[in-house]
From TrEMBL:
InterPro entries for the chain: NAD(P)-bd_dom_sf, SDR_fam
Recorded superkingdom: Bacteria
Protein name: Uncharacterized protein
Name of a matching Pfam family: adh_short_C2
Organism: Streptomyces albospinus
Length: 64
């Protein structure tokens, strides 16, 4: 088994305990994937979002 140095296998930049907290308390039970963040960004920079102004769009899976 590979040494993880206390990091999560599921998200290599988070400590395993931090990832466990997200799994327990987040609405989706996981962090957003890169593709999901990219999809939100793509919509916000497109003409389809031309009437969205002054808003915070949370792509956090319901955690924050």
């Amino acid at each position: 088994m590979a040494e993880t140095h206390g990091l999560s296998d599921n998200h290599p930049l988070l400590a395993a305990s931090t990832y466990d907290i997200v799994k327990m308390h987040g609405a989706l039970g996981r962090l957003a994937r890169r593709e999901e963040i990219a999809a939100v960004t793509a919509v916000l920079v497109s003409d389809d979002a031309s009437c969205i102004t002054g808003r915070t769009i949370g792509a956090d899976g319901g955690f924050f």
